[in-house]
């Protein structure tokens, strides 16, 4: 595709925020080439108002959160160290037509494995049909819910997200709403200037805060990061061209705004679809910078038997990058078959060229096999180019040997302990990754102190 100037432009709204970097220390040994190793330190956070801006088209509304006021010279996010008080917020976000009960087993096991330093919270603001109101609407509600937890828990210093399926897209939108750039450092990853300015970057440095907290882990399980348009991206359509052609216009009837956004047909023909905008920093939010602020980004993807989300979209890979995984599980993690670290790739941000707008209009108004395939291939490549500017740890999961392999989409987060318990190895792997990251942050902090 011919390269064109990015159509996305972000005008940074600077927020005054200061926080002390503090980490606890866990004794774990595991390799960590997968996550950002750079560290950032912040000054003390005092009683300031945070103005977090959300956008919907050309309109925006302010989401305000009042920081905890403290005495002069102390930091509510760095110095509070009461025994058994949680300092790490782990937000669990369910998928389409879901509820907090989807996390019953996962939450209980994480509490057992991670201990009292973690406040594990299963989101409840987007239950059931609320998941049909759009990724942007659900993301804003999730951001408000997270801010409420942060306001009410003074001991928190760090934050992580663990999301299943559609919840991963809600979380990506929410963290952009909650993102606060670290204005004290020179962040070269900020997209600024005119719309004719193109940005090439190999990595978004992990600076900035999420909801006033230090971002640690961003983890998704079977999330359709590239949408569900395209061959076998929505596997229950069986890859049949006829079904995939009619699915896009029917999706909004059954799943509302969310359906059109997942099929990349939302908005006017000349406007980039939401998922493409979410692969960049733009006027809607600093989506990639917010993801880049996390020390670790992990993708868990089902390689087969997932009837809802295809392997390509959940692992942010091209068709040519899908290599047959091994059949044998990793030691101690049943059904987890491979782990790959994909370093950041230097490239321009995503574009929405004129030919893409024409293809989108055709896909919206007169869908046929040719124009829908053309439009999807264009959008998929642009989304990958945007998201691959970050490093990702990609974990492949295969339930081929499970008693009910076709339950893969619900197995991966053990939606029900008795019916979907094949995914307990995934739970253990997620918990160990989180503990490993805690250990690295603690070691880095100790080294910096010395």
Question: What does it look like?
Answer:
The strands form five sheets. Strands 4-3-5-9-12-15-13 form a seven-stranded mixed beta sheet, sandwiched between helices. It is an alpha/beta fold and 450 residues long. The chain is 31% helix and 16% strand. The protein contains eleven helices and 15 strands. The protein has helices at 104-114, 135-151, 167-178, 241-262, 274-277, 287-292, 311-315, 354-365, 369-387, 408-411, 424-449; strands at residues 49-56, 59-66, 88-93, 118-122, 158-164, 179-180, 200-201, 209-210, 214-221, 281-282, 285-286, 296-302, 336-342, 347-348, 392-397. The protein is globular and about 60 Å long. Residues 1-34, 36-62, 64-76, 185-202 and 445-450 have low confidence and may be disordered.
Please tell me what the overall shape is.
Answer: globular
Unreliable segments (pLDDT under 50, ≥5 consecutive)? 1-34, 36-62, 64-76, 185-202, 445-450
Q: State the share of residues found in helices, binned by percent.
A: 25-40%
> Structural class of the helices, strands and pairings?
alpha/beta
Tell me the series of helices and strands, N- to C-terminal.
EEEHEHEHEEEEHHEEHEHEEHHEHH
Give the integer mean of the pLDDT values. 77
β-sheet strand percentage:
15-25%
Q: How are strands sequenced across the largest beta sheet?
A: 4-3-5-9-12-15-13
Major beta sheet summary: 7 strands, mixed
From the N-terminal CA to the C-terminal CA, the straight-line distance is: 51 Å
Rg, Å, rounded:
21 Å
Oligomer: single chain
DSSP summary, beta strand count: 15
Number of helices: 11
């Amino acid at each position: 595709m011919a390269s064109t100037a990015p159509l996305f432009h972000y005008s940074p709204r600077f927020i005054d925020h200061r926080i002390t970097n503090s980490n606890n220390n866990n004794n774990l040994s595991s390799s960590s080439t997968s996550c950002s190793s750079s560290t950032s330190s912040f000054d003390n956070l005092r009683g300031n108002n945070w103005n977090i801006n959300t956008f919907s088209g050309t309109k925006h509304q302010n989401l305000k959160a009042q920081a905890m006021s403290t005495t002069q010279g102390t930091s509510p996010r760095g110095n509070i160290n009461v025994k058994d008080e949680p300092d790490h917020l782990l937000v669990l976000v369910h998928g389409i037509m879901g509820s907090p009960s989807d996390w019953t087993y996962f939450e209980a096991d994480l509490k057992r494995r991670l201990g009292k330093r973690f406040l594990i919270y299963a989101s409840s603001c987007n239950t059931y049909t609320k998941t049909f109101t759009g990724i942007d609407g659900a993301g804003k509600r999730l951001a408000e819910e997270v801010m409420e937890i942060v306001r009410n828990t003074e001991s928190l210093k760090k934050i992580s997200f663990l999301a299943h399926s559609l919840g991963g897209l809600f979380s990506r939108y929410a963290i952009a709403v909650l993102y606060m750039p670290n204005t004290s450092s020179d962040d070269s990853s900020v997209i600024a200037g005119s719309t004719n300015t193109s940005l090439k970057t190999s990595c978004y440095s992990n600076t900035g805060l999420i909801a006033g907290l230090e971002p640690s882990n961003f983890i998704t399980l079977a999330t359709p990061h590239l949408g569900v348009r395209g061959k076998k991206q929505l596997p229950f359509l069986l890859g049949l061209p006829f079904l995939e052609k009619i699915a896009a216009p029917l999706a909004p009837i059954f799943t509302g705004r969310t359906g059109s956004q997942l099929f990349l047909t939302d908005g006017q023909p000349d406007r980039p679809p939401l998922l493409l905008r979410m692969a960049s920093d733009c006027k809607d939010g600093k989506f990639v910078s917010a993801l880049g602020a996390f020390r670790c980004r992990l993708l868990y993807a089902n390689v087969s038997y997932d009837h809802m989300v295809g392997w390509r979209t959940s692992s942010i890979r091209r068709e040519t990058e899908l290599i047959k995984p091994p059949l044998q599980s990793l030691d101690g993690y049943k059904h987890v078959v491979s782990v790959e670290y994909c370093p950041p790739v230097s490239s321009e941000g995503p574009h929405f060229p004129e030919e893409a707008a024409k293809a989108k209009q055709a896909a919206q108004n007169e869908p046929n096999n040719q124009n829908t395939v053309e439009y999807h291939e264009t959008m998929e490549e642009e989304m990958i180019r945007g998201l691959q500017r970050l490093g990702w740890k990609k974990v492949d999961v295969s339930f081929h040997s499970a008693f009910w392999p076709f339950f893969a989409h619900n197995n991966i987060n053990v939606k029900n302990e008795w019916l979907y318990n094949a995914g307990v190895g995934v739970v253990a792997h997620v918990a160990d990754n989180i503990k490993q990251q805690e250990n690295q942050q603690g070691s880095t902090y100790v080294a910096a102190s010395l």
